[in-house]
Structures are given as C-alpha cells and as structure tokens.
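Researcher: Here's a chain I'd like modeled. Treat it as a single chain, no partners, no ligands.
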Amino acid sequence: MKILVFGIGGIGGYFGGRLAKAGNEVTMIARGKQLEAIKNNGLEVESINGDFKVHPHLATDDVAEAEVPDLVILGVKSWQIKNVAKILKPAIGEDTMVLPLQNGANNAEKLLEVLPERNVLAGLCHIVSFVEAPGKIKHASFEPRITFGELDNSRSERIQKLKQVFDEAEITSFIPDNIQLEIWKKFLFITTVSGIGGLTRVSIDKIRQSDYLYNLMRKTAKEVKAIANTKGVPLEEEHLEKAFEIINNQPEGTTASTQRDIMAGKPSEMENFNGFVVKQGEDLDIDTPVNRFIYECLLPMEKEARKSGD
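Model: Modeled as a single isolated chain. Structure tokens:
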C-alpha cells in the first residue's frame, strides 16, 4: 500500500516505521533536523516490543514530491489538522483515505471542512512514544493500538483491507461498532487530566492525592459527558468510571503530552480539549464552569506560546 505519513513525531514515526518495516511504500513528511536525519540515516525506532530501523520510500517536506497515496496518516497536533488538510488536498486522489490519530473530539470534522467526505476516516490511537533525538523515536510504554472506522460506522471493504495492512505490520487495530463513542471515551480521559496537569504542573499521581483536585477532575469529566450526550454520543457513567480507573492506575511521574507542551512553553492542544468543551457548551447552552476555569487560566500562556510559533 502507498502510505503518506504527515508528521514524524512519536505517533507518525512509530506507526509509519512499522508500516515501512512491513514492506509498504511509505512517504514520510518531516522537516528540519528530523527530516535531515531520516534522509541520511533512516528512521530508528526503540520500542518495548523490539527495536528496528527503516529507510522510507521517500522522506521530504513537500507532499508534491509524493505519489498519490492510498492512505494518509496524520501525525500532527490536533490544532494543525485544518492547515495540513489544505496542504494535502492537491496531493490526494479520489480513493485516498485520510486517517487522523490525534487526541480531540472533532478531528474528522476539521478534515471535512477541507476534504471530500469520501476521503475522510475517523480514528485515534493509544501509545506512549516521542522523538528522543533527530531520526529516533522512542516507544516507552503501552501496547500501541489504532482504533478507526468509517464516519458512518459501516464495515466497508476498504476498512477491512486497511485492517489487514495494520495486521501485517504487527500493529494492533480495532474497528469498533461506534467510532464516535471511542473517540469521545479517549477525549473524556485526556481532557480530564491535561488541563489540570497544565495548571498544577505535577504528575497525575500527585494530582489524585488531593481530594480537591480529584473532585475537580470528576467535575471536568461530567461536563464532557454532558456535551457528548447532548450531541448524541452515548457516553455513559460506566465510561466515566473507566476513565477514572485509568487515571487511578497511572504510574508515578505520568504526565499528559499537552501538559508537557504547556510546561515547555510550546503551543498545545488546550484549545481542542478544555477550550472545545467550553465552546460546545456555549453553542449547546450547557454550563461548563470547571472547564471554563481551566481554559481561561491557561489561555494567557497559550497565547504567549503561539507568538513563538509551533
């Protein structure tokens, strides 16, 4: 399969590397020192499942150099999706599938603002990985998994074929009955921990030691659930409790990537997490006081970070 991976960070680098290792014709869109390192030495992946190194079919910063792909995997941040879709639009074909794997509840919707519906899939992933050095991805923990599907949840032929491609690349993947529910389940978890993590600047285990902060997280999650339910997403109390089961089992020192971006003074996905909840609440006439408090407290830092670029 001809696959274009846009963004060779922790997500795009790991999954793109696996797909290249399996013999797919993978084009990696990167930039700067990462691109230079991949061009010169290939992409190295250090993984808890075994280390490997690949040389992609093509490494470039220009999508116009790539052949029309069968599949595009987006490895950028959620706030970059719309601009990336505009860059990709001239390079994709009628049958190209575009799969977003970012955190966030409305990534597919952002793609639909730019791309035809036939090109857009919905998806998410679970993995803890990051760029350790130019040309090197470190997969540190968690069994990597991609969850994906058609926007209408149909079991299309192309979805089944894509599942086979992931299987052959030794990537665990899952086609759920309701992809929107799966997206919101992860959104519930990541929104609950990210903003509070950015404010407190301590790991999840230290946040949950405070009764006050733990209660604040539960209120954050309940507001997310209220938004989801109003939008017709069947997010139930059991899903909220499962999210807190995961929170309670996070090992010492664990932080969310958005929190790490905030602490490093980088542009973050805060607008797409707590900010998204606030804006949906305004549109749907639902009060979201806790998410608003978190969002407004983080907003000045986010504005400063965006002055410095991405």
